[in-house]
Design a protein that fits this description.
single chain, 184 residues, alpha+beta, Glutaredoxin, 12 strands, 27% helix
Length: 184
């Protein structure tokens, strides 16, 4: 496991479109998941211990953000030949087991991850209604692969703020997790 941390990204760049296959057999584009008040694009995978430590909170937060007009999608960008635990079939199992209420898609070419500048799993990108980037940070504070008890729900609060006023928080802490497993 190679630990990576997201970098500070200039807010405002526009979300890139995509056309990716979901675990439900459907194809998804940005327009399909765009929320009226914002959109959350998440890069996750099946095997990263950081993702697994936060997965129940991700599912909960996405469900609680939906009534606020926030759409969401999770993308799996890893090289599945080198990391078979991230295979499409295992993505389907994980999505069903954890009851994902959002599309889980595979970025087989890794073009979308590159276009977004994703570096790790999990990596969160929060966009406003205009699809301008407003948040790139962590879900919550994590220590020793465990969410810190009573820590702020940073991603949830940021996306709620985006839904309510169109802007993200001034202070954003980077997400950290396993490096994306790039193809050679």
């Amino acid at each position: 496991m190679s630990l990576k941390q997201t970098s500070v990204v200039e807010a405002g760049w526009t979300a890139r479109d995509f056309d990716l296959r979901g675990v439900d057999g459907k194809r998804y584009r940005l327009a399909d998941v765009r929320g009226r008040n914002g959109t959350l694009v998440m890069f996750i995978c099946n095997h990263c211990p950081y993702v697994l430590a936060l997965l129940d909170d991700i599912v909960r937060d996405v469900a609680e953000l939906a009534p606020l007009g926030i759409g969401a999608i999770a993308m799996m960008p890893n090289d599945t030949d080198a990391y078979p635990q991230d295979s499409f079939e295992r993505m389907q199992l994980l999505s069903a087991e954890r009851k994902f209420g959002f599309p889980y898609v595979i970025d087989e070419t890794q073009d979308v991850a590159r276009a977004y500048g994703a570096v790790c799993t999990p990596d969160f990108f929060g966009f406003g209604a205009d699809l301008g980037l407003r948040y790139r940070g962590r879900l919550t504070e994590v220590r020793h692969l465990e969410p810190v008890p009573d820590a702020r729900r940073e991603l949830f609060e940021a996306m709620r703020m985006i839904a309510e006023c169109g802007e993200g928080p001034a202070v954003q802490h980077p997400s950290m997790g396993c490096s994306i497993k790039w193809r050679d």
